[in-house]
Amino acid sequence: MDDSAMMDSGDIVIKLENVCKTYPLGKTEVQALRGVSFEIRRGDFISIAGPSGSGKSTILNLIGCIDTATSGKVAVLGNDTATLDDERLTALRHRGIGFIFQSFNLVPVLSIRENVELPLLLDGPEAKREGWHGSGVHAGRGRSRIDSEWVDHLIESVGLADRLKHKPAELSGGQRQRVAIARALVMRPPLVLADEPTANLDSATGDSILELMRRMNRESGTTFIFSTHDQGIVSLADHIIRLKDGFVMEDSRKNGQDPDRTAQIAQIAQIAPQAFAAAVGEYK
Amino acid sequence: MIVARIAFRNLFLHKAKTALIGTIMCLGIMVLFVGNSLIDTAIGGLRRMFVQGYTGDLMITGPTAFPVTIFGETAGGEETIPHIAKLPDYRKLLDSRADVTGTMPMLTGSVEMGIGETLIGQGSMFGVDIGEYRKFFSDNISLVSGSWPEEGNGAWILLSEQSVAMLSRSAGSQVGPGSKITLSALGESAGTVIREVEVKGVIRYGQSDSTLARISLCDSDTMRDLLGFASLRDGAVVLSEEEAAFVESFDPEALFATDTGIRVSDGNASIADPFRTDDTPGVDDAFAPSTTPEAGTVAAQQPDPAWQFLLVKLADSANPDKVMAAVRTEADRLGQNDRVQDWVESAGSTARTAQTVRLVFDLLVSIVAVVVVIITMNTLVVSVSERIPEIGTLRAIGARRAFVRRMILLETTFLAVIAGALGLVLGGGILLILGRSGITAPNLFFEALFGGKVLIPQISIGAALRAFVWILAMSLVSSLYPTAVALRIKPVVAMQGD
User: In total, how many domains does chain A have?
Assistant: First the structure.
């Protein structure tokens, strides 16, 4: 996969078209997403909001290329994810997407520095052959040479320069999430996904984490997409997508409602009027 | 390499599982190492004893359907092992080879021993050219009393120390150098043959067990007579017209005449034993005057003396295949069905018992291996199941399936190497302790198995390597299913939290 394929021709980094996702539940099925469509632009700081079961995580899974849609089209960084095999999806995740998990998901046996470096060290020989230089790895003779300055800069940016050799178990929740943010950014990905990044943190720590993410978004121009059910932190986003029962209830930007989006939502309302009406009723 | 770092540190993170699997692997490799070293030592001792003292590295025999032991036993039950018709050709071939250091012909048979008409014992006996025998087995034979037989000594026997003790007990008087002993054997076609021999000396073997220590040596011509090789002339001797006519006109009654000129030797009349190298007088000569056949009545074509075995010593005992192949090719060229076999076949039941013990041990090890694999595999599966979020996270942030596969394989490999090294150290310690005290054989079975009364275990590098390879293979097999389980973990599980 080359850089040109990874990067979208325009400012659109994510595009969902009429995406449905159904999960089996015993002998029945659960419709997690029902005809979701939206676009996300480069450099945005986006909140996908909604209550539990609204489909936030499902959307992040689809955007993060770790799950596939039942129907519809999911384009990530210009790639139709349905056309990619496991190897290519892995490469797309590795080089194009940074992940911040609700439970931090650091590797317990690695130090803070090693956790941050980890994505750089996962780069196999294919990346070097294909000339992917977007990350902090430089192809060296025999093994990858880590861009230590970049790693140091990231760790310093998240305020953990004095914890380099500590293990995750020795850090607080907030500190662990900071490590996860640094890890998500180390490959210089165009896109970072954060699944309820503050859910396991107290409010003060959660605020600082969001502030950090916002700062990184501004400094690096990386697109940040985070899911949350906390209305308080939704307001920090400059692009809000609200979900309810698998429908998009609201797709708004701080600088005003997109008239095309409003028309799209209305179109969905016609496709599944009853379900949509029920969702809207509850939403209001 | 980050994958190695993760794999190695995971061992310490999951201490209980590491300790469980590590202990199993450590004990497994220790038992394997010690067991194989003991067996290697025993077989090495047996090999040394037989190769250097009795069989040589290889043994060529006359045409038999089954392998023949140095004691003349065959699975086919042949009473007399046929002689090697083209022995000089084999010797010529072998003596010219750089990888052969010596050859020696011999005969073997089971004989009864007596003094006068009193039976005092029986046992295996080798018929040899004593000069060649002493040269071939120079390190294994020494003279305790008496003297070495010399050319022209006539019929002689060298008794082993153990035989002397046994015969003296049976006879009620001391048997030793100068004693006259009668040897008798029931030949397949020659009837009972009796020969009187003089005890020239008492010998001691450098390496022997209770069976081998009873073996005595006698001159080859006496053994030929006892084996009845005079009647094995079919196909080996071409009779002249005169001989054929004599055989036709032969009257058995003449055997009992006193001046027939016919020599009575073994119940059958013979013109002259063409397999004998001289006219050594036998016990029959004591009862009937020995007469030398007229020159004209001797076989027109005097055949080579009959030998049943040709023992071969190799420069490299561990690599007999080339020489065996050359002998087989030579046998084909000569149109002979002669057999060439290694020391294990020549040693017979003793070596086979040792090899059977090894097979039984290997079988037990295989059963234990299956159990160890199952326990290890289950523990690894549990370990993988507990790490689903971690593995899912690795996959989510870009680790390929190969990375996960390497991680699991490296974990088990590291564990196997560490546990294996520890097991080898422990096993080595046990062997060193046993090597100082030695293991005394509790009975004759173990004495035969040990190749002596005491086994001094030695650390076998081969056994250590085999054990190490075994543990690595076990770890590899054990990790296959857990690896498959790990590879089925989807990255989406990373989103599901702890």
Answer: 1
